[in-house]
Amino acid sequence: MAVANQKGGVGKTTTVMNLGAALAERGAQVLVIDLDPQSNSTSGLGIDPSRARLTTYQLLSGEASIDEVATPTAVPGLHVVPSQVALVGAEIELVNQEDREGRLRRALAALTGGFGYVLIDCPPSLGLLTLNALAAADEALVPLQAEYFALEGLAHLLYTIQLVRMNLNPKLTLAGILINQFDARTTLSWDVLNEIRRVYPDRLLQTLIPRNVRVSEASSHGQPVTVYDPSCRGAQAFRQLAEEVMSR
Ligand SMILES: Nc1ncnc2c1ncn2[C@@H]1O[C@H](COP(=O)(O)OP(=O)(O)O)[C@@H](O)[C@H]1O
Ligand SMILES: [Mg+2]
After folding, report:
1. Is the pLDDT of residue 113 over 80?
2. For residue 219, which atom of ligand 1 is closest to its CA?
3. 121: nearest Cα among 207, 204, 196, 49
4. How far apart are CA 164 and CA 176, in angstroms?
């Protein structure tokens, strides 16, 4: 599952980390692939990007296999392929390479089973790294922030997903749109929710992720919120999302 949106700050990393942890909590073996040079899901899962030896960069360049780069985290069942800032270079180097959109798909083809879910944390752009994620994935999950301009760029993203389906990856489907940072006390949050219900009636996931300060605190402690504060509203919402994902 590729978690993608070319906007930054909408909750891609937060979703990958916490959905991953919630799925692992339910007994699944989960692999998070950090495809963002900013390495937020790597550090958010307690791994120091600067000390990671084998990263997404080596995976994409073919220097290391998926089994070699998958690193266990402190959460049982949850593994991460760490990223490093060097991944910026990979995006540039890929431009002149053969099958440049298919590098991740090829690397993942070597997965020996074991993982029930693979979640890919995309960078905030629709460049080659995100295309690699969409070309490798069965599903795309699109988080949106319940804020002004939430829908800005969404049509373009959904069109890109359609293009990838037609040209690179016929099995790609849209898992759904996930509203993040929902605040039931503000009219703005409801406006965004109603607007998405109106424009994309059957695309919206049922689970709403509330704005919850524990969620951002958890990341800065290198933990998913399900571990940092297991009973807070954020943790409950990500468990509900895991159930929604598992039940489909
Ligand atoms: N539901 C939430 N409640 C509170 N803070 C959140 C929530 N979701 C995301 N954040 C915070 O918002 C910021 C952006 O989220 P992030 O997941 O890094 O976005 P992206 O990966 O799309 O750039 C981070 O500081 C994160 O901790
Ligand atoms: Mg991110």
Report:
1. no
2. 27
3. 49
4. 16
